[in-house]
Design goal:
The complex is a heterodimer of chains A (about 110) and B (about 110). Chain A is mainly beta. Helix content of chain A is about 0%, strand content about 50%. In chain A, a hairpin with a 2-residue loop joins strand 5 (about 45-50) and strand 6 (about 55). Classes of the chains: A mainly beta (about 110), B mainly beta (about 110).
Chain lengths: ~110, ~110
Amino acid sequence: DGGITQSPKYLFRKEGQNVTLSCEQNLNHDAMYWYRQDPGQGLRLIYYSQIVNDFQKGDIAEGYSVSREKKESFPLTVTSAQKNPTAFYLCASSSGTGHGYTFGSGTRLTVV
Amino acid sequence: AQRVTQPEKLLSVFKGAPVELKCNYSYSGSPELFWYVQYSRQRLQLLLRHISRESIKGFTADLNKGETSFHLKKPFAQEEDSAMYYCALSYTGGFKTIFGAGTRLFVKA
């Protein structure tokens, strides 16, 4: 079954801790993305990667980091520098221009 | 700067009535526009793309460059159309996409 898998579904973090959200795809897509979804604000781009070993900052990259060591995987680390990390995080992938995105089911991160 | 605006947060219509979800965009180049839908307890998924000029689940959307709009329309709404709808604009060769804030469509029986 092809698609994108995000884990965990729910994640709780204590203030001051770093946490890593997993995103894996078996669609053979070159491009992968991380978005943050907050109520009433739609989706905002955190980081994106067009190809392995390359990634670019999106509109709200501060306090986040990523890596792209394999085509299938694009993990997102939410660092302690992120001031307001409680949100719903969506990973997506794309095969290229005009094709749109395939989304994962998301990870809900809560800081306690 | 690029921007996507969905002016309605909530749209409520009766079953069988026409529905139009509005989307306006701001972009100086040639836009790639999409509609995404999220049904209850399901993941966000692509509904349609302006370049394919297709009709999906009875929905259509026409790009109006003069009015910079990409409204989503369906002539007869069904209860199963109730969902959250997002308009999106892709640029930089499709590698960056910005989303509107979304419109929740509620179709009443």
